[in-house]
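May I ask you for just one protein sequence along with its backbone structure tokens in two labelled lines?

_____
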Amino acid sequence: MVEQWRGTLYPARLPEFHRILPAEELADRVRWVWIPEWNLAPGRVSRQEVLPFPALNLVVDKDGVALSGPATRRSFRDLSGRGWAVGLLLRPAAVPVFSDDPGSLRDTEIPVDAPDLLAAVVAAMTGKPDDDAAGADRDSAGAGVVPVVDPAEARRTAAVAAAARWLEARVPVPDAEGRLANRLEDLIPADASITRVDQLAGQFGVSVRTVQRLARRYVGLPPLAMIRRYRLQEAAERLRLHPETPIADVAADLGYADHAHLAADFREVLGFTPSGYRRSAADS
């Protein structure tokens, strides 16, 4: 399932935005592909604020390809004019192909020399559906079926396919350790009762040291930071979607000792309190 708005602090402010699951054979290397598109009036700026997933992203836009490292705090990007981006949220198992020290990329972005990926994605996002697809549509119409072809959806589909082909050719199927790193990432958001690293280690029958090493090599963040990030993402989503729920109840449901501990995490990572976020989300 695609968590369409998880990590997005103000969905109502977004331009057109899509998260698209990869082909099943790539699900162990890419969590999803995210594609925003925007066309803003001259002089208008749209600030997009996110609480990023504890992961790395490979991002393509018309100007190049970049590897975005794991974030330690809220991040934002100001959009203007017309544009788009195609981002791949990488699974942990894919990270060592791009960086042997993801921790050195915290809160930063570095260019990636991938002209073939850039060319393929730009062509997809600025081009038209290929002739085979158009021919299939004509055949369907001739058989009495009237197709509905959305050019924007066709561009996105082509861009996802192009990025997937590039990634599959360069990122091998995960080995046993890579699969374990992926399983760690899967378990943390799925089980809200996990609030400590020793609980995470116990679920897999490995040592705390092993969990710390996997997080360092495959994510670039401490495992406790990963746990807290997913809890904060869920807390933000609940505060936004359920304004009637007491903040103390949200904190208790997500394993926080009390309201004050959740508020401290909010201030440290997001820069504002849960109540302040709830008010700003309601006004957006």
User: Anything to note?
Assistant: The CA atoms of residues 123 and 257 lie 51 Å apart. Strands lie at 16-20, 30-39, 45-50, 57-61, 64-68, 75-80, 82-84, 86-90, 109-111.
